[in-house]
Amino acid sequence: MGLEIQDQGSNNRVEVDADAIDGDLRIAIQGDGNHVRVGPGSSVSAGIDIVGNENTVIIGSRTRLLGDVPLEIQGDGNSLRVGDRCYGALVARFTSSGAGLEVGDGTTFQSVLMSLDEPKRITLGKDCLLAGAIWITVTDMHSIVDLDSGKRINSAKDVVIGDHVWLTMNVTVLKGARIGSGSIIGTGSVVAGEIPANSVAAGVPARVQRTNVTWKRDLIREEPHRSDERETDPTVTHAIRRL
Ligand SMILES: CC(C)(COP(=O)(O)OP(=O)(O)OC[C@H]1O[C@@H](n2cnc3c(N)ncnc32)[C@H](O)[C@@H]1OP(=O)(O)O)[C@@H](O)C(=O)NCCC(=O)NCCS
Predict the structure, then answer these.
(1) How far apart are CA 51 and CA 185, in angstroms?
(2) How far is CA 77 from CA 80, 93, 117, in A?
(3) Ligand 1, from 109, 172, 187: best to mutate by most atoms within 8 Å of Cβ?
(4) pLDDT of residue 234
(5) Gap from CA of 169 to ligand 1 centroid (Å)
(6) Which domains does the chain possess?
(7) What is the mean pLDDT of the chain?
(8) What pTM, to 2 d.p., does this model score?
(9) Distance (Å) from CA 200 to ligand 1 centroid
(10) What spacing in Å lies between the alpha carbon of 136 and ligand 1's midpoint?
(11) 3-state secondary structure of 32
(12) Tens digit of pLDDT for each residue in 22-64?
C-alpha cells in the first residue's frame, strides 16, 4: 500500500516522502487548509484522521507511533507535533479547536492517552519515559458549576512536563499540572499541581517524596547477594558445609 492519502477538501498540504516512511501510512482529511508532515523513517501504524480546517500534524524523523487508534483531530486550528526518535502507543484526542500537543525528541511511551477536548496545550519535553496506562488531560470533560454564580469553576488549563521526566505505570496528570525536568512520578499517582525538578513525587495527590535525584533508562544492576557473605561465625559456616 505504501502511502495512501484520502483528501476530501482543498488547500491541504501533505509532506510525506512515500519512499522514506517506515511501512504503510494512511492519511485521511476532510476539510481545508490542513498541513501534515511525516519525517523520514517514521510510521503511524493506525494512520492520521483529520476532520476540520487549518490543523497541523508534524511528526519528526525516525518516530514510530504504534497502536490501533489513529491520530485523530476533530476541529479547527489544532496542532500536534511529535519530535524525532519518539516511540510507542500514543492516543491523542482532539475534539475542540485551537488545542496543542507537543512531544519532545526521544520521548517514549508504553501507552498514553492525551485528552485535548478544550483549547489548551499539553507540552511534554525531550527524552521523557511514559509507562503504561498514562492519562494526561487539560480538561475535566464536564462542568462543575458554582451554585451562587451559576458559573463553571473547573476551567481547562495547560499541562507542562519538562525534559527527561519519568511517569511510571498508571499515572494521571490533570489540568494545570506542571512537572519539572528530571522528575519521577510514582505508580498510581495523580498529579494535580506543581512538582519541582529532580524530585520523586507520589500519591494522590502526588507529593514530593525525595529531592535531588535523577533517573536513567539503564537499570544499574546491583551485585547479586551471596548468602554465605553474611556468615561471620566460622562454626556456623562449617556446620552448613557439612550438611
Ligand atoms: C516512584 C518510585 C520509582 C520511587 O522509588 P524509590 O525512590 O525507591 O522510593 P521508595 O520506595 O523508597 O519510597 C519513598 C517514599 O515514597 C512513597 N511512595 C513510593 N511510591 C509511591 C507510590 N506509588 N504511591 C504513594 N507513595 C509512594 C513510599 O511509601 C515512601 O514513603 P516514606 O518515605 O514515607 O516511607 C517507585 O515507588 C515506583 O513507583 N515504582 C514503579 C516503577 C514502574 O512503574 N515501573 C514500570 C516500568 S516504567
Answers:
(1) 35
(2) 10, 14, 13
(3) 187
(4) 55
(5) 11
(6) 3-242 (2.160.10.10)
(7) 94
(8) 0.92
(9) 8
(10) 20
(11) coil
(12) 899 999 999 999 999 999 999 999 999 999 999 999 999 999 9
